[in-house]
Amino acid sequence: MKFQHHGFTLIELLVVIAIISILASMLMPVFSQAKEKARQVDCMSNLKQICYAMLMYVQDNDELFPLAFPFWAPIYSLPVEPNLKSVTMSYVKNDQVWWCRSWVGVYGYNRWGNPSGGCFDYIIPTAQTFPVIGDPRTGPAHGYAQISRPSDYPLLFCGSPWPQTLLAHEGGGDSDFFAGKGTGATNICFADSHVKFTKFDLNTWNTLYLSR
Hints:
Structural class: alpha+beta
Radius of gyration: 23 Å
Largest sheet: 4 strands, antiparallel
């Protein structure tokens, strides 16, 4: 008995293509979310390493945090040294930990002409200071003992609110967030070195960032 082999008709091909397209459109957001979750976890690991380095610095420096500018200092016409990276250089050996893959994907490596910078910043101690832990120009250095609840005190985070780059992990628009629309989220490292992915609205962020 001979069997005849028939090819697909145009209608059948179109149906198959349509099904594949529908499945792809359904799966793409899932894949995208999974990739961002992986980047978020990677960022948390980087942030924890930097926080460990800072705490080792504190331990070796009479329990005092460094007098250092944040990495964004060059864009504000402030002195470049000392900064977060330079004061912890002997404790952080891998230069890649200074860059969050999500942040780089949104803002790039050299957004403000600072190719040797990074994407992590300090939580500032008051609303009147630059985002530094101890201003090198004026001091004084802050002691670890001054933090009454280290597990509740946010120390470092992924992003920088001064040039309004905060929502790399959230996917929302910074301008909308700072206009009071919607919520934000980023990785925050607390003074006891635990890192948490934290969501917040503008009022919560202003309280967190400006009222320490």
